[in-house]
């Protein structure tokens, strides 16, 4: 039996009497109680946003994905299209068509876009790595940042300027990459300064993963990340926020509320916004009954979200996709291998770590996200006049 979150139970869960809600003239109350609140609708009421990583070619070829994006999202993150190896696969040979289509789609629906990502070792094209090592010339990096931010500065207000700079085992806690090897630790501040000068109005973020669990490795990652953030802030380099990817995983141990709460508060104390930028849950046991698998996934996400969404600096949640059909965690979807999830007959092989299953049925995780997003930071944090832009059908 699908967990039906009704308006009445939704309000009751929040301790908001319908009459009180009427004072705020929430137009979604007028809808049938059987309808479900969209994820963005719930997020907006509590002063946050919800979004998902997308690929425009998938949105435009998959009607169910198109509907779910329109219903549940306010923010879109290009999973591939804005990366250096996607926009300039060969030096000077730019390929902006996919990103242009996504910008046009977002604009027509008043969606916002997260600019993911300008500098990431794994998406730096081979030719650029070779040129950087050969010339040691920062102007190549600045040219890339300038080319992309100038083209999309009108459409993208928030950028992951640097993706995954941390390595707990690295010197100074920094990950060995072509930028660190070529320009030293200063590359982070230099990239932020260039981004600020090119797009002064944009919010600049550093985005990374592996901070959620209470284990020695992730504690070293948390400390390395805080060390980098404190250095950036102390050097007065421009930084507005951090993205915590939150690629959760079953079997990765315990999420200790006090540890996570303290980490988030230390980030917030630096004056930085926080966004959950790539939420999903990686499974370990595909052989268990689907109902159990979905319960484990929902419980894992709940344990993280309950703490994360108590933090007032937490501005929003972006899932790394909406449906298991397109998840990078499902076989074939991001390795370029011959099979993709679309060709997989046995859907139990798909990782069930996103809000919708491969047939776009909302899973327990979908409802868990609703309940977690309906977390009152403070009454002032509740936006009674926005309400759900769309309700799930
Ligand atoms: O589409 C092409 C296909 O035409 C070609 O035949 C094939 C052969 O290489 O490649 C296909 O592109 C793949 C693309 O995903 C398609 O989805 C790329 O190889 C593959 O590298 C790419 O992987 C993406 C990866 O980032 C690298 O860009 C994943 O989809 C994407 O989910 C993943 O996302 C990252 C975030 O950006 C940063 N945080 C971690 C997260 C997961 O790795």
Counted beta strands: 11
Category by helix and strand content: alpha/beta
Largest sheet: 8 strands, parallel, barrel
Shape: globular
Query: How helix-rich are the residues, as a percent range?
Result: 25-40%
Q: Give the SSE string.
A: HHEHEHHEHHEHHEHHEHEEHEHEHE
Strand order of the largest sheet: 2-3-4-5-6-7-9-10
Q: Point out poorly predicted stretches.
A: 1-9, 13-35, 335-340, 386-393
Cα(first) to Cα(last) distance is 17 Å
**Beta-strand percentage?**
15-25%
The small molecules bound here are: ligand G3I
Q: What's the mean pLDDT score?
A: 87
Instruction: Please give the radius of gyration in angstroms.
Output: 21 Å
Counting H and I runs of at least 4 residues, what is the number of helices?
A: 15
Task: Explain the overall architecture.
The protein is of the alpha/beta class. Helices cover 39% and strands 15% of the residues. Helix 9 runs parallel beside helix 11 and helix 13 (257-268) packs across helix 14. The protein is globular, with a radius of gyration of 21 Å. The model is unreliable at 1-9, 13-35, 335-340 and 386-393 (pLDDT under 50). The structure holds ligand G3I. Residues 79-80, 83, 122-123, 163, 245, 278, 328, 334, 336 line the site of ligand G3I.
Summary tags:
15 helices, binds ligand G3I, two-stranded antiparallel sheet, 393 residues, eight-stranded parallel β-barrel, alpha/beta, disordered N terminus
Summarize the helices and strands and which ones pair or pack.
Elements: H1 7-14, H2 18-23, E1 36-37, H3 39-45, E2 49-54, H4 56-59, H5 63-72, E3 75-78, H6 84-87, H7 97-108, E4 112-119, H8 126-135, H9 139-152, E5 156-163, H10 178-183, H11 187-198, E6 203-208, H12 216-234, E7 241-244, E8 247-249, H13 257-268, E9 273-282, H14 290-308, E10 314-319, H15 364-373, E11 391-392
Parallel strand pairs: 2-3, 2-10, 3-4, 4-5, 5-6, 6-7, 7-9, 8-9, 9-10
Antiparallel strand pairs: 1-11
Helix pairs in contact: 9-11, 13-14, 14-15
Bound molecules: ligand G3I.
């Amino acid at each position: 039996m699908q967990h039906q979150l009704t308006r009445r139970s939704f309000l009751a869960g929040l301790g908001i009497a319908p009459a009180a809600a009427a004072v705020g003239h929430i137009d979604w109350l007028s809808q049938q109680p059987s309808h479900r609140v969209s994820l963005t609708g719930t997020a907006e009421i509590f002063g946050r946003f919800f979004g998902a990583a997308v690929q425009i070619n998938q949105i435009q070829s998959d009607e169910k994905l198109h509907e779910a994006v329109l219903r549940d999202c306010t923010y879109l993150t290009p999973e591939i299209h804005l990366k250096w190896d996607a926009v300039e696969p060969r030096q000077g040979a730019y390929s902006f068509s996919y990103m242009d289509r996504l910008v046009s789609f977002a604009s027509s629906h008043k969606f916002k876009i997260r600019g993911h990502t300008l500098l990431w070792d794994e998406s730096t094209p081979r030719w650029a790595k070779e040129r950087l090592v050969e010339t040691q010339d920062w102007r190549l990096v600045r040219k890339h940042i300038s080319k992309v931010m100038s083209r999309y500065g009108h459409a993208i207000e928030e950028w992951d300027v640097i993706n995954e700079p941390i390595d707990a085992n690295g010197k100074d806690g920094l990950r060995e990459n072509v930028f660190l090897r070529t320009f030293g630790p200063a590359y982070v501040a230099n990239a932020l300064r260039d981004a600020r000068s090119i797009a002064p109005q944009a919010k600049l973020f550093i985005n990374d993963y592996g901070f959620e669990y209470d284990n020695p490795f992730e504690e070293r990652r948390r400390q390395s990340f805080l060390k980098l953030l404190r250095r950036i802030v102390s050097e007065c380099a421009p930084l507005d926020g951090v993205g915590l990817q939150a690629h959760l995983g079953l079997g990765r141990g315990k999420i200790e509320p006090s540890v996570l709460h303290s980490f988030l508060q230390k980030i917030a104390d630096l004056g930085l916004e926080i966004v959950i930028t790539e939420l999903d849950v990686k499974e370990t046991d595909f052989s268990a009954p689907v109902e159990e698998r979905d319960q484990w996934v929902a419980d894992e996400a709940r344990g993280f979200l309950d703490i994360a969404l108590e933090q007032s600096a937490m501005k929003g949640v972006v899932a790394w996709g909406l449906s298991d059909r397109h998840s990078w965690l499902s076989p074939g979807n991001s390795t370029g291998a011959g099979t993709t999830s679309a060709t997989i007959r046995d859907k139990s092989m798909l990782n069930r770590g996103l809000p919708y299953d491969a047939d776009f049925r909302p899973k327990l995780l979908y409802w868990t996200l609703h309940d977690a997003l309906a977390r009152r930071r403070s009454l002032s944090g509740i936006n009674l006049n926005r309400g759900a832009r769309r309700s799930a059908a």
